Amino acid sequence: MAAQPNQESRDAAKGRFTELKKVRDQAHEDAEKAKAAADEEMWKAIATELDAGNALQLDVVDATGFSRDHVLRRTKPYRKN
Fold this sequence. Notes:
Layout: H1 7-51, H2 57-64, H3 68-75
């Protein structure tokens, strides 16, 4: 059986755990920001294609697998028409 850690060892480990959690939380926040930016870029580009008359909303549905309602809601803020 392993010996019990002393208080100094435990405190040092807690400090490392806190730092690890901070790094993890920052990575999660960065990933969420990257996902949001990618979503915005995609929906803007889709809206541009729809506004240009290059495709129908149904084409977006077929290509992406999203529902027509979802496509409408996500492109609406970027549509010109």
